[in-house]
Each structure stands twice: as C-alpha cells, then as structure tokens.
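Subject: Interface between my chains keeps coming out wrong

I've been trying for a while to get a sensible model of this assembly. When I model each chain on its own everything looks fine, but I need the whole thing in one frame so I can look at the contacts. Pasting all components below, labels as-is. Any help appreciated, I'm running out of ideas.
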Amino acid sequence: MTGQPSQTIRVAVLGADGRMGRAVCAAVDAAPDLDLVAQVRAGDDLAASLDGVDVAVDFTVPSVTEANVRTLVDAGVHAVVGTTGWTDESRGRISDHLAARADHGSEVGVLIAPNFGLSAVLAMTFAAKAARFFESVEVVELHHPDKIDAPSGTARHTATAIAAARREAGVAPSPDATETGLDARGADVDGVRVHAVRLRGLVAHEEILLGNEGEQLVIRQDSFDRKSFMPGVLLAIREVVSRPGLTVGLENVLDLS
Amino acid sequence: MTGQPSQTIRVAVLGADGRMGRAVCAAVDAAPDLDLVAQVRAGDDLAASLDGVDVAVDFTVPSVTEANVRTLVDAGVHAVVGTTGWTDESRGRISDHLAARADHGSEVGVLIAPNFGLSAVLAMTFAAKAARFFESVEVVELHHPDKIDAPSGTARHTATAIAAARREAGVAPSPDATETGLDARGADVDGVRVHAVRLRGLVAHEEILLGNEGEQLVIRQDSFDRKSFMPGVLLAIREVVSRPGLTVGLENVLDLS
Amino acid sequence: MTGQPSQTIRVAVLGADGRMGRAVCAAVDAAPDLDLVAQVRAGDDLAASLDGVDVAVDFTVPSVTEANVRTLVDAGVHAVVGTTGWTDESRGRISDHLAARADHGSEVGVLIAPNFGLSAVLAMTFAAKAARFFESVEVVELHHPDKIDAPSGTARHTATAIAAARREAGVAPSPDATETGLDARGADVDGVRVHAVRLRGLVAHEEILLGNEGEQLVIRQDSFDRKSFMPGVLLAIREVVSRPGLTVGLENVLDLS
Amino acid sequence: MTGQPSQTIRVAVLGADGRMGRAVCAAVDAAPDLDLVAQVRAGDDLAASLDGVDVAVDFTVPSVTEANVRTLVDAGVHAVVGTTGWTDESRGRISDHLAARADHGSEVGVLIAPNFGLSAVLAMTFAAKAARFFESVEVVELHHPDKIDAPSGTARHTATAIAAARREAGVAPSPDATETGLDARGADVDGVRVHAVRLRGLVAHEEILLGNEGEQLVIRQDSFDRKSFMPGVLLAIREVVSRPGLTVGLENVLDLS
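Reply #2:
Try treating it as a single job with all components included. I did that and got this:
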C-alpha cells in the first residue's frame, strides 16, 4: 500500500509449489510493481535460477532454508524468508555471513519473519508499546478447536514482548486478587495472563486488553484467511532491497516510529 | 419501559438505609407510576409499616429476609427480594407458605431474584436458548482485579444453564483438540469453558461466544454501575402484583417467549 | 444439533446444481440421520423425482419456486424453501393451498425462510425480545466494501422487528440530543438508527447495541462463510416434518420460548 | 507507570477548585514522587504562588490560560496545560516566548494537550501509524445520548490523522460500492467514514477498524470515567521537566517509536 518504487522488482519464489509459495506467486503476479521471474521447486538448482533476480522469497522447509539464504546472499539476491525453524544460532550464522560480505561491499538484505500478517504484527507491536502505560494487561487468543497447542505461538510472543516492555519500564505486575480458579485453557507467560478460546467457526484472532482506572484500550486482530499474509510479503519484498544486513521481524521494516 | 399500569403502585423499601436500598428509594421516587410510601430500616416494626403498601422491596440481610417475606405475605403485600442467602430450603418454606395462603384466597406474589441487571439476566437467558444450536460455546467474564473469586457467580450460573440446555438437547461437548495449557484463570463448569479476565478499569462484564462452521454469535453484557440494577427492580415491582405465588429469577417475569 | 429422529429422513434437493444447492447436497450427505435420495436440476421432471422423498429443499429461482412448492405439497412432500422472491401474495396462495389439502387430511409442512444463518436469525430474534427493556437501541452492520446497498436487508429486518417490539410495549424512542451530523452510511429504520460499516476483509456481520443507565447488552453475529447456512437448513429439514401448514422464518421452528 | 525520578517534583495546580483541578490535586497528592505544594484558584496572585514550584498544571478557563502559561514561563516553572481554547496563534505566541527565553538559557518546558486519556491518545496514534497498511479504514465512536455534536471531536481528530497518514503514503481511498444510504449519524472526515452511536449507559468510546483481504485490525478505546485522565496528567508532569520548549499533544511525550 506504500509508495511504489519507480522500477519493477524481479522476484523469485522458492518453494513455489507449496501452499504458501503458490499464494506468493499469485500475489507477486498481480502486483504491478513486481515481476515474477522464477519459480523454484525442491530439486531445482537454486543458484542457476537466480539470473536477473532482485529478491527471492523463501517458503520452503526448515532443513534447507539456511542453505538457501546463504546461496542467495552469495548471489547478491535479497531474501525474504517465511520458512519456520530458524534459531538464534542459524540467524547468527547468516548475520555473520552478511557482515563478512558487507566488508566486501555487498548491500544484500535478508528479512526473516515468523509472521507476515500485518494485523498480527501491528497488534503485537502496538501492545508492547502501550504496555507500560497501563496498570493491567491480559491477552485473549481465539482459534478454531482443532488447534493442538494453547496458548498460540503468536499470543506467547505477544505476551513475552509485553512482559519485556513492562519490566524495562519498571511497571508492577498486573494486580490480581484472585484466590481461586486456575483451571482454564491458557497460561501465565512471563507474568502476563493469556486466555485461549477454542470455537468452531473461528480461524486465528488475538485481543490484547489494557486497563487503567476508568479506561480500557483493546487491540484486536482477526486473521480470517491465509490470503491475509500476502500484503505483508509484498511489503517485505519492496522494503528488503533498501535494508542491507539481517532484519528479524516484519515490524522492523514498517517504520512505525 | 413496558406499558404503565393505570394505577399508582405504593411501594415500601426494606433496608432503606443500605446502599442498594437507598438506590431503590431514589428510583421508585423518580418513577411516575410508583409511590414510595414507606422506608423501613433495621429495628423498625415491619408489620406496622405496611399500611396501604402494595409491594415491598427487600434489600436487607440474609439473617432477616425470610422472616420479612413471611410478614409481607401475611399482610397481603407483594414482595420483590434482592437479598442474598436464599437456599432451596428457605425458598421451599416460602413457597409452601404462599400455597397455604392461596388456599384461603390470597393472591400475593413473591419474586426472589439473585440478579436484577436486565442485560445480565437477558444475556444468560439468550445464551441458554441459543446453546443447543452451536457446535462450540465458551464463556469469557471480565471484572476488576480486586475480585477474589474466579469465575464469577454470574458466569458459573450462565455456564450451568448452557450446559443443561445442551445436555437436554443431546448436543455433543464443544470440540477441543488442545493437548497443552490448563493454567489460566477460569474453570470448566459442567463441560463449558469459562475464562476469567481481571483488568483495572472494568466493573462486571460477560461474553458468551457460540460458534458453528462459518459463523459466530456473541452475546455480551456490560455492567458499568450499580444504577444498572434499577430498571430490573422497577420492572419486578410492576410485574409481581399480577403473579401470585413464588417466582425465582427476573427472567421469569420478562415474558421472553 | 438437536436430538436425532429415530428414523432417517429422505431428502431431495431442488436446484442441486446451484451454488447453494451443491452445498446443501454435501451437508445432507454428511448428516447421519439424513439420506440424499434425489438431486433435481432445472429441466428435470420434479413430480417424477419424488418417489420415497420425505422432505425437499428448494434453492432454485424466484420464477419457479412457487410452482415447485405446489407440486411438493400435492405429492405429500414437506418443503424447506430458501429461494428468494416470495411475496405476501405468493405465500398466501401456498397457505391457502395447504389449508385446502389439510381439510383432506394432509399434514404436509412448508417452511419458507429468507435466512438460514442460525446466528443471524437468533441475533435478530433476541434483539427484538430485548428491545423493550432498554432505553436506547442502535444497530451496526458491517460488510465487505463491494456491497451495493446500505443498510443490509438483514439489518433493516432487525431494526423493523426492534421498532415493532418497542412500539407494542409503548417504549419511547431512543434518546438523541444530536444536533449535527447526518451524513454517514446507514439509515433511520422506523426510528432505529442503523450504521453501515464497509471494510475489506469482512463478510457479513451485525451488532445490536442496547443500553440503559449503567449497563449495555450487545448481540453480535458474524457470518464468515456460506457454509454457515447449512446447520440451519439441516435443522429446518428435521423440524418441517412435524410442523404441518406454512411456517415463515427459521426462528419459528427454533422453539425459543 | 514509567520509572520514577530520583527526586520529588513539586507541583502547583491552577484551577484547583474546578472539577478537573480537584481530581488533579487528589492524584498528585496520592503519587509518592509528586508533592502538591500549591493550589491556585481564580483571583489568587499566580506569580506569588510559585515559590519552589517545579511544574504547574493548568486546568483553568480559555480566557486566562495563555496569560497563566506566560507567567509560569517567566517564573521558570514548567507547565502542563489541559485547558481548552488554544489556537494556532496562541500556541505560536507561547512558542516564540519560549524560544526568546531559551536564548537566555531557560530550559522551561510547556506541554499543551487536548486529551490526557492514555487509551484515547494511544488509539489515535496507533490508528494513524497503521492506516497506510490497510485497504479500508472506518471509525466508529460511541457516546451517551446527551452529547450534542456528532461525530465527537476525538473521532474527527482521529479521522484527520488517519487521512493525513494515508495521503502521505499514497494510499487509495477505502473502497466503497455503496449506492444508497447516507442518512446515519456521523460524517465523512477527509474521506474517512466516521459513524456515531449514541446509547444510554455509554460514556466515551472509539473504535478504529482497519481491513485487508482476509484480516482485520481493531483498535478500541473506552473512557468510563474522568479518573482515566489522571495517569496521563501525572505522566505529563514527570515528562515536561526534561522537555524544554513547546510540546503539543500527549502522544509526543510517550516515546512510542
């Protein structure tokens, strides 16, 4: 939705035959400022597929994503990575590799993001920013009832960010006089209560409630469909070209300050 | 809010110096179709205060409320009772007493209600009516953080009514694939999940979520202030005069069918 | 979701090749107590397709639905009708036809419903029931931005039902001191304010807000997907067999009293 | 809620006998890091009341507030101003006055804020930050029915900020296929639709809805009580001491970047 670059960006999609990969191909195809120049599948020779590619989007599998990114960096291709399974260690290795290349003049950018949903990423970011101004904060996440884990990874991540922001600001824990009843779906994540609702008909939703005497701020996010990730992926493609080095998290290319 | 009776109803308030009693006195005073003719306090002679009274409202204390109601019935005065502490046994005794008097031609009505909040009573009633039509149902209650119990009595009552309605209709339990995480504030009440949020700034709120594939029904109720009980009390005063015998629960005089 | 009948109901679907018809076929097929015995398409001989059919579901087109229903009634087949275009006159003709047949012992039932979404029908019904107990009531409907009309038919229908219930109970209009600003999407429907939000990402949603001093009741309904109509259609199939004569509106087979 | 300064801040309250002034006095009194050293009323000699005062809070009236602030600046006292009626011109004069004094070494800070409600200020700020990432955005504000203007000033301010952010980012207007129905309470503010709900029981609430294909972000803010302004006032007192010059808007001392 942001201002369009003057020049078309040539995009390769890695994992182009996967569920997310196909959706990315369609979204890139439909964007007037992006040009889908390569669809790379498992077994294809990646290095040989990168001629004239500006940005590669990796939605492959944990076992190959790090090697893919290394190949992209060496080829001078910017990378947007949505594949899961990255650890502090693997991110550290890519960061070191980028730094080494930068010494030789490379300006390649790599963006690794666990979540490309703009509403999800913004909800989490705003909640963390607001957390230190309120006496109380709790999180409610709501999902379809076939989900196995509770609370959701997104809600845990949100609560962790809220807890860190409050700790840093020296805010006291949310008050709670309850003497009974710790038997509901959810968890205490770093001192932040997370409630997990499971309801047929829902997809993935998160609500952060922040309260002071006489006021409440509620930040709610609804993901109705996987299509919702595409605006975030496109935005990442457009931003990564001007952000050399490693960036982790879509929120860090949103210029929210 | 319903149609006004053609004749003024003369009202006595028992416990007129208590917090709720004072609010009832003010509300009765402000209603054009009601006439506040007696304010009875602890220590006053109740029987001697009932001359010309049509309806008495009892917001006293558990230790005296049953004796009060018995006195009212004997004096032929209808009773609206908001005092807590009633049990199946004490309600049974009043019911028997009313039946015995009815044999002698008495048409006195007694309404005992644990909750006069119209939005709370309607939310609970609608949720129970809707419960058998949905695959999933969960309850979220939200209160100020000084509350000691969780979940709230109202939420427990709601969940119990939902569970009974689903059991009677032969509905399967709400689906739930969760394998982790039962460590949040709340409870499983008769198979219905109740989540309890505690947040500074809130008063008393309840949300019932009902879901089917592709759809959701949410019934939410907010009590911001004790003033919210007054419309229910006034409605009870107007209805009890035409409902001989014992009625338990405001929902039973709302004609919701 | 209600109790299962002891015997399988044999179902025909008229308009089986349409979008809704296909969804109904799939839903009937998946229901253990229903047996899909006929799929009737435009051009098929309807009368010849009804051997052994208990209930027929009509999702055809306005130009043929009345003739279809007449054929079904004559064949002794119960009818569930979701086709639009019915008028007071065409409903009257079917009602008369059913009455004439009932004189000869027919117990055929016909259910014509403009909306099979359980959450939508329940929201509307509950809102109408609650409307007389609150000083204020307003309606907010939210839809995708490609919708041409505002407010939606469902919201207009809801507001009309609310207005009728309040008028019947002698309730004053919702208070409103506003002296400026009647330039937003929506309408005043029989004295009830209806606000229309249009937002990419949404499907069809309605929220009824009811308020008294110190309290609020909110009834919200979300339709995320056409699949949400199926539980209502299945319920209608199971109920119509025991409801001779004409019934208009799904709410009238829900036994909400 | 942020980290406490090591030293107590001595506070004067101007307009100490007004509704807001009294609330500020109570809040300052209750804060362990603030010391209420002067309560100034209409008619008092302001300049003579400022001995040893670090920060003065002005909740007086439009006719005197600019003169008050000038007196405070001259006395080297930081000012937090909640009085309404400021214009671009009066703010400009104070800014010039501060600049002139700064040339002589003054580090006095003045904070003028139209709204001290943290949830309201944060909702507006987050909505403006998020606005360029979504295809659609609309605003719903909800207030008690005695309010004369619609939409509310806060909602107009929010919509203006959203419109500016979208214009700057080159985002297209929110899509809208509606061909009927512009007769509801509310307005089109710079191309952003604002809906105004009026409901007994409510106080002041605002909801910003942002939508993309398959996702929604909702930022909601509830002001239940005037007490909700106090955390913002206290935060302003603590921040103004280290922000020389003129700051307009509480959001600019919240360090939200």
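Reply #3:
Confirming on my end. Residues 153-169 of chain A form the longest helix (17 residues).
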